[in-house]
Amino acid sequence: MQRSLLLSILLPVVLAGSASAVSLSAAPDVAVTVPAGTVLHLRLDDSVGSDISRVEEPVCAEVIRPVIVRGRTIVPTRSLAGGRVIAVRHAGHLRQRSLVTVRFTRLTPGAEEPSYRIRTRAWSAVGPSLTGRDLKGIGLPAAGGAIIGAIIGGGKSAGIGAAAGGGAGAARLEVTRGRDVRVPRAAVVLVRLTQPLRVEVPAR
User: Fold this and answer.
1) Can you give the residue range of the structural domain that contains 68?
2) How confident is the model at residue 55 (pLDDT cuts 50, 70, 90)?
3) Which of 78, 126, 163, 175 shows the smallest number of beta carbons within 10 Å?
């Protein structure tokens, strides 16, 4: 009798606790929107350049600054971004300048997270014209985050550029005697989202 009474008291408590645990573990993800115009800070995994890159060649990069929405980190550092080279132009005569353009189209917010398709402005590095000064071997101090000449998109006022860094103490924007432009591995490029990005994150 006493055992039956004790079970009748404890059983609902145990079941309620189990139900709560199941409810918590099965909490659905929520969608958070990263607004258009957000700038992604990406560090290139490999060099790109007008003399070494080919159209459709894959480009990979790592996020080095988290994207935070409403106080919550949505895209953490070390997230991965992927894209392709979409244009290459060698330097020509007179004012034809060398060019390499990349566009990032995929973003993986975490090591085990799903990959999302993103829409971004194209990022371009442009070499000097033949009438400009010789820019061969411009040094870019890693600590200073110097900006190398580059444009985003095709607009005249779309310049954001890229900040270069490197473990050896300096990165370089190398322009060969033929005026080809090269962006080194570990250079940091700034890429702007052109459409909102919806990311699934665990509910709080």
Assistant:
1) 29-202
2) very high
3) 78
